């Protein structure tokens, strides 16, 4: 398909020298003053004190009609004032109501408290604070997860706060909106999602989500800032030390990839994209920025491999959000349209897919297999082989089934219909099927809802006759213990005269 693929054409056509990016319709949170909120909104005044490792927050939370005024909070943070009054209630079952972060908190040893407001208020004001510096996970965790993780860091090196650390009142599993006004040390820049500034004239960071988000991040520290633009999008690079050449490379690559994916999928959903150098080794993609460790971002191959992957997450996972209860589709789709697409453009797509299948064969055995509907995040080679690898191959098979143009139209339709919402594999199947004028539900159901893959064997091969009258016969069978898959299997017969 090289040279004719619409996906590859999008990759080749993008050029950092040509950035004719049309204005886009940005998702905003603007509402009339009297209209009830559509989703939970946090208005937060935050102070970070790196010397004391202390976090202090005042949060005014508005609730949509029917949303209970209760939340989870990291147990290391002490609640002070609240209007109306709060009472602590039993933690109980958390994942169903609060989502994937709550479900994984126990396995990470994170202690949480659950609070409920008196009555059924539409607005809750709460102040809280405490020491919030938990260190990094051990080297074993680094090996299994790829990077060392933390529930939160706040020290002289910098700040890392994420929803998984429950540093803010975590209300439920639905999407939220927020504004942040952050007091920070001199010379620091703190970055969050959406639009705003990492350091204004008064020294404070201010951010507005400008649309729905899955959680709230606040990261940064003593950083140098570089700014450019890619059409209507502000592009930034935050580095620990002055490095004009490195910043220029990343800003140029940012413009190129934003333009490429905008042409392929639809408008970029945010007003900025920032590369942020982290103070430990990470490779994270958040809405409107990526957080890369210093060693990682200086590796020569990152610009053409991991970097487009993190930028693409702004469409998949941070533009269209994941309905984790039904399985995480975004990691496999992002890997397919970034890592795999780059290799395919280089003429190495088949080798990439073969390596992907090899990882599945090597790691997914001895009871470690599971359906894609059960994949939430990577925490071992087996979960990576399923959640990234099997999903990637599923999307490749879907593309082969409907053709490049219909597949690209399906991706665009999926993004257009689900942008700013949580979406599932079923939503993706419907969009792809509608674009191709076919029912892809049975295809997706087979590859997403059941575990395993075909184990193909060829046997009893024989040749009868001679010359042009030769006949090749054999038996192709599925040898796995589970029921057969409905699949098409290409067969090639190579002879001295050529291949049929």
Rg on CA atoms, Å = 25 Å
For this entry, what is the oligomeric state of its chains?
A: single chain
Helix content: 25-40%
Mean pLDDT: 89
Distance between the termini: 18 Å
Shape: globular
Which stretches are low in confidence, meaning pLDDT under 50 for 5 or more residues running? 10-33, 141-145
The count of β-strands is: 25
Number of helices: 13
How large a portion of the residues is in β-strands, by DSSP E?
Answer: 25-35%
Please identify the structural class as seen in this structure. Answer: alpha+beta
- Largest beta sheet: what is the strand line-up? 4-7-2-1-10-13-12
Largest β sheet strand count, sense and barrel closure: 7 strands, mixed
SSE map:
Layout lengths: L5 H8 L26 E10 L4 E9 L7 E5 L3 E6 L2 E4 L5 H4 L1 H6 L6 E6 L5 E9 L7 H7 L7 E3 L2 E4 L14 E8 L4 E4 L3 E3 L7 E4 L9 E5 L1 E7 L2 E7 L4 H22 L6 E7 L4 E4 L2 E5 H4 L8 H7 L8 E2 L7 H16 L3 H15 L17 H22 L1 H15 L3 E2 L1 H12 L4 H8 L7 E9 L6 E8 L15 E2 L2 E2 L1
Parallel strand pairs: 1-10, 16-17, 17-19, 20-21
Antiparallel strand pairs: 1-2, 2-7, 3-6, 4-7, 5-6, 8-9, 9-14, 10-13, 11-14, 12-13, 15-16, 18-19, 22-23, 24-25
Helix pairs in contact: 1-5, 1-8, 5-7, 7-8, 8-9, 8-10, 9-10, 10-11, 10-13, 11-12, 12-13
Question: Care to describe what's here?
Answer:
The protein is built from 13 helices and 25 strands. It has 500 residues and is of the alpha+beta class. The strands form seven sheets. Strands 4-7-2-1-10-13-12 form a seven-stranded mixed sheet, with no helix packed on it. Strands 15-16-17-19-18 form a five-stranded mixed sheet. It has a four-stranded antiparallel sheet with strand order 8-9-14-11, with no helix packed on it. A hairpin with a 7-residue loop joins strand 12 and strand 13 (205-208). Helix 10 packs across helix 11. The two termini are 18 Å apart. The model is unreliable at 10-33 and 141-145 (pLDDT under 50).
């Amino acid at each position: 398909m090289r040279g004719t693929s619409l996906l590859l054409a999008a990759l080749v056509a993008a050029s950092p020298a040509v950035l004719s990016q049309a204005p886009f319709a940005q998702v905003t949170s603007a509402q009339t003053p009297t209209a009830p909120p559509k989703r939970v909104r946090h208005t937060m005044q935050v102070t970070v004190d790196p010397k004391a490792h202390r976090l202090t927050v005042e949060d005014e939370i508005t609730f949509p009609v029917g949303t209970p005024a209760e939340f989870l909070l990291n147990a290391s943070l002490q609640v002070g004032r609240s209007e109306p009054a709060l009472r602590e209630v039993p933690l109980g079952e958390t994942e169903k109501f609060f989502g994937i972060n709550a479900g994984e908190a126990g396995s990470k040893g994170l202690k949480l408290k659950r609070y409920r407001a008196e009555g059924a208020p539409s607005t809750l004001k709460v102040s809280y604070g405490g020491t919030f510096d938990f260190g990094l996970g051990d080297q074993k965790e680094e090996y299994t997860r790829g990077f060392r993780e933390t529930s939160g860091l706040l020290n002289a090196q910098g700040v890392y706060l994420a929803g998984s650390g429950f540093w803010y009142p975590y209300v439920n599993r639905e999407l939220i909106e927020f504004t942040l006004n952050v007091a920070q040390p001199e010379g620091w820049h703190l970055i969050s999602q959406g639009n705003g500034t990492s350091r204004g004239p008064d020294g404070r960071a201010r951010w507005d989500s400008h649309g729905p988000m899955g959680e709230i991040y606040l990261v940064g520290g003593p950083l140098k800032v570089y700014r450019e633009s890619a059409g209507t999008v502000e592009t930034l690079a935050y580095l620990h030390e002055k490095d004009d050449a490195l910043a220029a490379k990343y800003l140029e690559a940012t413009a190129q990839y934003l333009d490429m994916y905008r042409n392929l999928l639809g408008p970029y959903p945010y007003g900025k994209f920032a590369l942020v150098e982290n103070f430990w080794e990470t490779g994270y993609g958040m809405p409107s920025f990526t957080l890369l460790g210093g060693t990682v971002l200086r590796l020569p191959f990152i610009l053409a491999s991991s970097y487009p992957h993190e930028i693409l997450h702004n469409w998949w996972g941070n533009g269209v959000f994941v309905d984790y209860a039904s399985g995480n589709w975004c990691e496999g789709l992002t890997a397919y349209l970034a890592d795999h697409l780059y290799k395919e453009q280089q003429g190495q797509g088949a080798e990439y897919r073969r390596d992907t299948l090899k990882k599945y064969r090597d790691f997914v055995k001895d009871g470690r297999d599971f359906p894609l509907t059960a994949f939430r995040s990577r925490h071992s080679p087996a979960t990576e082989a399923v959640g990234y690898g099997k999903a990637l191959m599923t999307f490749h098979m879907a593309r082969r089934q409907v053709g490049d143009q219909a597949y690209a139209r399906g991706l665009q339709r999926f993004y257009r219909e689900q942008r700013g919402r949580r979406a599932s594999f079923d939503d993706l199947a419907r969009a792809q099927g509608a674009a191709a004028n076919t029912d892809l539900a049975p295809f997706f159901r087979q590859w997403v809802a059941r575990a395993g893959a075909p184990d193909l064997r060829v046997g009893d091969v024989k040749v009868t006759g001679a010359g042009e009258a030769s006949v090749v016969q054999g038996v192709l069978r599925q040898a796995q213990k589970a029921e057969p898959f409905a699949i098409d299997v290409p067969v090639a017969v190579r002879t001295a005269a050529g291949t049929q």
